Amino acid sequence: MPARPNSQDNVHSYFPVARCIFRAFTGRWAKRLYLTVLLLLLTLTSIARLRSYFMARNIQAVLRALAAVRIDQTSEEQLVKMVPYLGKSERNKEGNSRRVYLARISNES
Amino acid sequence: MNPDPRLLARLANTWSWSGQLAYWLGYRYMSFDAIILVEGGKVSKVSYGLANQWSRPQYPGSVGYIVSARSAHSFWLPYNMPVGWSSKDDNSPQYQPFGNEEGLFVVYTYDAPSQFTDHIFQLDLSCFWNLSGCTDARRIAPAIWEDIQTIQHDTYRQLTSEKCPDSIVEGRMRYLPDITVLLLEVTGSRRVQVNEEGYPAEDWFTDYSLKEVIRGHSNFKSWNNVRFGQRIPSPTDPLREISNQIWPPTEIGTQELFFGGGFYSCRFIPATPSALDVVRHTPIPPKKPEDEVVKGLM
User: Fold this and answer.
1) Which of A22, A28, B36, B70 could crosslink B47 through cysteines, CB 3.0-4.6 Å?
2) What distance in Å separates the CA atoms of residue B134 and residue A57, rounded to the nearest whole number?
3) Least trusted range by pLDDT, from B60-69, B74-83, B182-191
C-alpha cells in the first residue's frame, strides 16, 4: 500500500511560489539582513538618546547654577564663574552698565 | 515661478513622515536658553526657557517654551495701564506659576523664598531620551505643577473665607508700582430688588465719599452707586466664574481701601490700622525696563 503524502508535502507541491518566497524571507541571508537592520536601528536610537542625555546633563548643570544665582546680590564676576556655557551677548554696547549673558544649548541644526 | 502646490504638499508629507521616524528612533528637538541681565555689576534679571519644538515668538514666562521662568522686581505696563492681577497672584505674589500640560510658566520676584525658587530649576529631562517623549510639561516640571495645585487650593480657601488678609495688601503694594489706592468712607448703602429677565434678584449699591488718594489717582468724579460685583473669575479656571463671597462693609461711617487695577477680588478692603500701615509705609517698587510686562503675553 503506497504511503499517503503528508500535508507539508502537499503545500510544497501545490504552492511552489509561496514556498520560494517563504524560503527567501526565512533563509540565512534574510536572517542576516534582519539582524543588520535591527543592529543599525539600535545603534541609531542609542546615539540619538545618548546625545540627548548628554545635552540634558549640560542643561541640568546650567539650571543648578541658575538656582544659586541671587537677584541684586550675585555679582558679575561670581555669575561668570558659577554658570557654565555662559557667553556675553553680541548686542552689549561698550560703556553701558547693562550687560546680557546668554547660555544656549540646542540640537537645532 | 510659483512652486507646484502638489510638490510642496508631498515634500511636507515626507518631512512629517521622516520627522516621525526620527522621533520614534529617539531624536527629540531640544532647545534651552538662559538669559541673564547684569546691571551695575549685579545680576538684575534671570530667565530661562526650555523648548521641545521649534516655536516663535519665544518669551520666557509667557510663550514659545514648554517650561520657562523669569524673575522680576515689579509688574508694570506702559502708560500706567493696570496689570492683570488674579486672586492667585494675591495669594502668592512672589512666586506665580501658571499653565497646564502644554506649557508651564513661572514669574518670580527678586525676593522670593528659596523654597519656591528651587522648584523653578528642578526639571526632569529624562523624557528627552526615554521612550515616552516630551509632550507633557507637568512631567518635566512636577514641582511647579504641584505648586500650581497648592496655590489654587489656597486661593479658593481664601476666597471662601470671606476675608482679605493684610498679606494681599502687602503683595500689591510691593510689586505693583502703578496701583491706585484710595481711602473711602461709606455714606450710604441699599439693597435693590431687580427683575433679571423674569427672575427675582437683588443688587447691592453703596455710596462713598473720597477721603484720600493714597497712591495713584481716582478715575471717578463720583463714588455713589458703586455696585457690588457678585461674580469673580474662578482660581482654577479664569474662564469660569464663582460667586464673590467677600462682601465689603456697608455700615455708614466705616472706612475702606479701594484698590484700582486689574484685580479679580478684594477690590474693597476694610481700612484697618494694620492695612493702612502697610499701604502708607510700603515703598513704591522700582519700574525697571526689563520688568515691563509684554502686553498680550500675560
Assistant:
1) B70
2) 16
3) B60-69
Subunit contact B121:A106, Cβ cutoff 8 A: no
Q: How many domains does chain A have?
A: 1
Query: Whats the size of chain B, residue-wise?
Result: 298
List the domain range (segments joined by +) for residue A14.
7-86
What is the interface size between A and B, counted as CB pairs within 8 Å?
132
Look at residue B64 and tell me whether its pLDDT is greater than 50: yes
State whether A55 and B45 contact (CB < 8 Å). no
* Entry pTM: 0.83
Flag whether A97 is in a domain: no
Residues of chain A found within 8 Å of residue B15, distances taken between Cβ atoms: none
Residues in chain A: 109
B120 vs A106: CB contact, 8 Å cut-off?
no
| A9 has a pLDDT exceeding 70 | no
List the one residue out of B48, B111, B83 whose CA is nearest residue B295.
B83
| Nearest alpha carbon to residue B117 among B139, B97, B99, B101 | B97
Looking at residue A94, its pLDDT comes to: 64
A18 inside 8 A of chain B by CB: no
The string of pLDDT tens digits covering residues A20-43 is 888 888 888 999 999 999 999 999
Residues of chain A contacting residue B55, judged by C-beta atoms under 8 Å apart: none
- Report how far apart, in Å, the C-alpha atoms of B172 and of each of B24, B180, B228, B235, B261 are: 48, 10, 21, 17, 10
Residue carrying C-alpha cell 513704591: B284
B267 closest CA partner among B222, B221, B226, B211:
B226
Domains and CATH numbers, chain B: 29-159 (no CATH), 166-286 (2.40.50)
Q: Is B66 on the interface with A (CB under 8 A)?
A: no
In terms of Cα–Cα distance, which of A58, A50, A53 is closest to A86? Answer: A58
What chain B residue is nearest to A105 in terms of C-alpha separation?
B32
Under an 8 A CB cutoff, do A98 and B39 touch? yes
Q: Do A73 and B117 touch (CB under 8 A)?
A: no
Pick among A63, A81, A83 to test the B interface (most B CBs inside 10 A)? A63
For B76, which DSSP code? B
